[in-house]
């Protein structure tokens, strides 16, 4: 029991490292007052779904660059850029893509060709499926690569998000979500998010968790924390190592959130812990090299375990 408590405390500390590495660079005041910065924050999360994070990051940089160029977005002309975006609202409808997906006579291998047909009438779809060389930043590296969104789910997600922010009340998506959490609760924000194409439980929880970390939000109860606790393959693997044998997302959330409490008090911050779980999985090799291999003798561990 003491060993598990120590492990969980260390994972919570890794959540602090996650914050410094991935969230500290976002200016909270700018996020609240700049709709374009808020949209970049959102897309930096919404593309992180079911594939290599490096590829998702490339899709993020591609989308930001093509939208920036198409709507002539700069910090000096944000209002004019937003007005241009609103005028394109009729092109933010994903139904033309969904109609094709529902046609059982069509095969997925034809989807890209069909998307090209849609692009003839929809400049936003054309923008997103046309290869463009963009500058990408990843893991302290900068490189140029020709990229496009070849996955129709990504295209529909972008369309849905643009449609969402084209509503003047939701113009700043970060501000809208923070206000929703504060005034109507975590569940309301979560339900707004999962209405968007491509925003799963994992992505919605990921977005809410990071907003919670940035604003130091204390959730009201376990149910709120569950909606801010993303579970991916890294979290599942670590859960198995820490005594939770289930692969069920809800059961893993329950397991860890309960472990964060003692005598009905959160002694470990579930948001930091959730971030630390991912950080541990993704950066496990770096953590091992930094903290362990220079301090221990592998042979002694092997001998002790075999006795």
Oligomeric nature of the chains: single chain
What order do the helices and strands follow?
HHHHHHHHEEHHHHHHHEEHHH
Q: Over all CA atoms, what is the radius of gyration?
A: 21 Å
- Most strands sheet: 2 strands, antiparallel
- Count the beta strands: 4
Give the distance, in angstroms, between the N- and C-terminal Cα atoms. 22 Å
Please mark out the parts with pLDDT under 50 across 5 or more consecutive residues, or reply none. 302-307
Give the percentage of residues in beta strands: 5-15%
Q: Count the helices. How many?
A: 18
Side by side, the strands of the main sheet go: 1-2
How much helix is in the residues? 55-70%
Judged by helices, strands and strand pairing, the structural class is mainly alpha
How would you describe the shape? globular
- Please state the average pLDDT score: 90
Can you lay out the helices and strands and say which pair or pack?
Blueprint: H1 2-23, H2 28-33, H3 35-46, H4 53-70, H5 78-87, H6 95-102, H7 111-119, H8 123-129, E1 132-138, E2 141-147, H9 152-165, H10 173-183, H11 186-194, H12 201-215, H13 222-226, H14 233-241, H15 249-259, E3 261-262, E4 265-266, H16 270-282, H17 284-291, H18 298-306
Antiparallel strand pairs: 1-2, 3-4
Helix pairs in contact: 1-16, 6-7, 7-8, 10-11, 11-12, 12-16, 14-16
